Each structure stands twice: as structure tokens, then as C-alpha cells.
Amino acid sequence: MIDKSNIIPxxxxxxxxLPHGHYLDMRTxxxxxxxxxxxxxxxxxxxxxxxxxxERFEHVPFKKLKKxxxxxxxxxxxxxxxxxxxxxxxxxxxxxxNIERKVL
Length: 104
What we know:
Layout: E1 2-3, H1 7-17, E2 22-27, E3 34-41, E4 44-50, E5 54-60, H2 62-76, E6 82-90, H3 93-96
Antiparallel strand pairs: 1-6, 2-3, 2-6, 3-4, 4-5
């Protein structure tokens, strides 16, 4: 778990080192809302939001990722102080959105 005040630099660093086709899963402490951050290419990311809102952001360049993450964190994790981050491996859309995690 990562403190919310340090989450954006930590996520950006992890995404830079992430291999193509792999993804990160960001969840609230209770694990009931999440963001999937998929690295499609060097400068191409897919963001899937599932929580209060359900949206897909495709072809997001690395330059705009910081601002988008800041907006999504305010929207999806408004009162959270800690965020869970999982390195999930290769992204397969069908299985990625159906992973069941224990909800607190």
C-alpha cells in the first residue's frame, strides 16, 4: 500500500519500467473501486476506471498521464489515505476486469 500523497510519482515510475502489454491495478483500501493502467507502447497507455464512474481512456500519452491520474484519484479515491497497487503481468481484458479480490 502506498500513501496517497506519494502515489503519482510512484505510479509514474512503475509505469516507465513496466514492459509493454503489462498493467497495474490500483485499488482503494476496501478494494471496491479500481483503476487499471495498461502500458500498450512506449507512449501509449490505456486507463480503465471502475468505481463511482465507469470510463475508458485510450491512447493516453505519458505527458498527459500525470494530470489524468490526479483527476481520477480525486474522483475515485476522495477520502482514501492509502492506495493498493498490484503489478498484474500481461493484460487480457476479459480476465483483468473479472479478478475477484476480497472486499473489506
